[in-house]
Amino acid sequence: MRSALSVVCHALDMSVVKDARARARAEVVVAIKATAAQHLAQTGAAGLSLRAVARDLGLVSSALYRYFPSRDALLTALIVDAYDAVGEVAERADAAALAAGADPGARWLEVCRAVRGWARASPHEYALVYGTPVPGYSAPHDTVEAAVRLSRVMAAVVTAAAADGSLRPPQRPLPGPTLVTDAVAAVAGGAPPPPYEDLLERSLVLLTALIGTTSYLQFGHLHLALVDDDAWFDRAMAVAAEGVGLVLPLD
Amino acid sequence: MRSALSVVCHALDMSVVKDARARARAEVVVAIKATAAQHLAQTGAAGLSLRAVARDLGLVSSALYRYFPSRDALLTALIVDAYDAVGEVAERADAAALAAGADPGARWLEVCRAVRGWARASPHEYALVYGTPVPGYSAPHDTVEAAVRLSRVMAAVVTAAAADGSLRPPQRPLPGPTLVTDAVAAVAGGAPPPPYEDLLERSLVLLTALIGTTSYLQFGHLHLALVDDDAWFDRAMAVAAEGVGLVLPLD
DNA sequence: GCACGTCAAGAGCACCGCTCTCGTCATGCG
DNA sequence: CGCATGACGAGAGCGGTGCTCTTGACGTGC
User: Fold this and answer.
1) What is the reported pTM?
2) How high does pLDDT run on average in chain B?
3) Is A132 in contact with B132 (Cβ distance < 8 A)?
4) Cα B88 to Cα A106, B84, B152, B218, distances in angstroms
5) Where DNA binds (residue ranges) (chains A, B) (predicted)?
6) Which of B175, B237, B180, B171 is nearest to B204 (CA)?
7) ipTM of the complex
8) How far is the CA of A63 from the C1' of D25 (A)?
9) Which of residues 15-34 of B touch strand C (CB under 7 A)?
């Protein structure tokens, strides 16, 4: 009877109920990731030590290899979580702005501020996601879904601006054929109509400006150059948004 | 007599002729930096091992500590050199474009391409300079002079555009007081005159766009998004340049 | 009730950054 | 000119790392 139930679980609910063994294993995995995330937040990716994580868990280092085949695998798992975190932050910021009746420009400014706020609150996680790639980093395949969440938010904002007529057409359209892949068009919901033929290329510039500016500030390259980082960041985002025709509210 | 000569050397030419000891020491220092740079280019900053460098030099690891007090100090020396390298690349590209009679827009495009070309040729050095900061990184004081070289090139291009009238004034000037420090104004050669009051803020956006876009491409975040990285990079720089009123040549 | 698979523990390997000590050699001073 | 000082390289060693392998205990499924 128990075995029959077990079979039923396997057939219907495998991913939810699972084996008792598998569930215990999953719990250990999340415990490892949790303490590893704590260490990451404190010491950074370079200082994350598998042995130290094991010590905190009351385990011996070799026991961790039952759950993660290598330190890089653990780090990759943390990267995926961090990607997801920034994606969720962006989505929530946009949803909140949308609920407050903000126009597309105001929505995007809130998204930018939220991403930068997350970067400042979690500098090491941010560096893991958008800084120098770690040498043994497995594959973008795990992260591509999580990474696309931010792009989707931007696509929604730009599409809304195009729909309500507030998106200004480019003064000087970019020459040549489209330069983005079909995957980008799929995320954006198809090729943009005239007069926005170069909108996808310009949208990637907008996304790059958000991450690039956040990184440049986060990594201290403008430390001696600015008297008010926050105000300049808002204006930098406004200048970048002009490139796609989006008008951000300032003051 | 020898001692008298030595005194003369000390008084007049100390930094050029030096002691025999000091010169030998300087040679060893450059040898260490050279092989360390090789290792850096191959394995990246994380994989740079003091012991491996010492082995390549036929030394024992402890001997290196006579020249660099720690691994981070050696890494910092490499960072300074890398900053200088990218600054020189930018300066040479601008000088070549200027000699070829290029207008400011064309000059800046060449500078952008040159910086990105250096990043692709020296990815680990680029990551060291513009990627995640290394934890034990000493001080920006050593690098600030080298880092300002690129800014100076940009300032020269933008100033030339303002001087020859090709710089378009902003359609929507940035509100509020100036956000940059006096150091930035000093590099730019003073506060910009009307109608370019926000030029320094916008110029920092331009610089950030160059580095941010190069990093975003270099770190693979647009790997699945673009069919022609080079063409998109040119257009991204053109879109960013629109933000300061600089017109880049495309096609 | 027994065998199997899973798990944690421990020892061990190679490598790392870094410190300390100890000969050696050239240098500069009296 | 002779000697003491100081710089230098070699080597051993410490604590740490990632990772592998073996061993023994435990709970589960047949």
Assistant:
1) 0.92
2) 91
3) yes
4) 40, 6, 11, 20
5) 49-68
6) B180
7) 0.91
8) 15
9) 19-21
